Amino acid sequence: MGGRARSTPMAITVTMATGKMHPRSAMNLSRTFTKALAFATERHANQKRKGSDVPYVAHLLAVTALVLDYGGTEAEAIAALLHDCVEDQKAKIDEIRERFGAPVADIVSGCSDTDEDPKPPWRPRKEAFIAGLSLLPAAVRLVVAADKLQEGARGFRRVAVAAGSGRLTPPCGACRQMLWEFCGDIEVLLVNLDGESERLRLKDIFPRPFDVSFIR
After folding, report:
1. Which of 16, 141, 165, 173 has the fewest CB atoms within 10 Å, i.e. is most exposed?
2. Range of the domain at 202
């Protein structure tokens, strides 16, 4: 499923496999991506993966690779590189917006469960983040899904998707593809604001379309 990257003088070309949920023949990553990579590497230079001596940037690169592999845009890929800058390195959203643009800053903001220093207690902070996750834009959910899968959260038995409307909303295409590849045919619970619910297997959702009408 993975694409092959090759360097060119002016850009990095990522060739996507044609069997993905979001097929794209080729996408050129601009100098902004290169600048974001340098920014993330510098900000996390002294940080290691928990319980190891592995440089933290390895996690950022792996999350970014997943986002690109599942059809992410350049803004989503840049946000993947920067998704922990606010929480872990005290970067400011305004700085990210100025350097990399509003779309990237909005995704990074959505991926950050706090910008406070010191951080609030871990459990209520994470619970609040998870509770609001289904209401966030699809771009944010893609980066979060890649982050959690890369961290090793691959043993899901079931997933709940709570829609902030009266519709029963399935996972977006990239998210369901990730879940299928890493978790298999797990149970999916769809719920809405009217209290309606539906239990499905992941394989039953693939024929169902997901389009912009679900996030309007």
Report:
1. 165
2. 157-216
Instruction: Give the residue from 76, 94, 111 where a domain finishes.
Output: 111
List the pLDDT tens digit at each of the 216 positions of the chain. Answer: 333 333 322 222 222 222 334 445 467 899 999 999 999 999 999 999 887 889 999 999 999 999 998 889 999 999 999 999 998 898 999 999 999 999 999 999 999 988 887 888 888 888 788 777 777 888 999 999 899 888 775 566 788 887 777 888 888 777 777 778 777 888 998 888 888 899 999 888 877 656 556 655
Q: Is residue 30 located within the same domain as residue 87?
A: yes
Does 152 fall in a domain? Answer: no
What are the angstrom distances between the C-alpha of 115 and each of 82, 88, 118, 165? Answer: 14, 9, 9, 28
For the question of whether the overall pTM of this predicted structure is more than 0.70, the answer is: no
**Cα 173 from Cα 62, distance rounded (Å):** 20
Rg (CA), the chain: 17
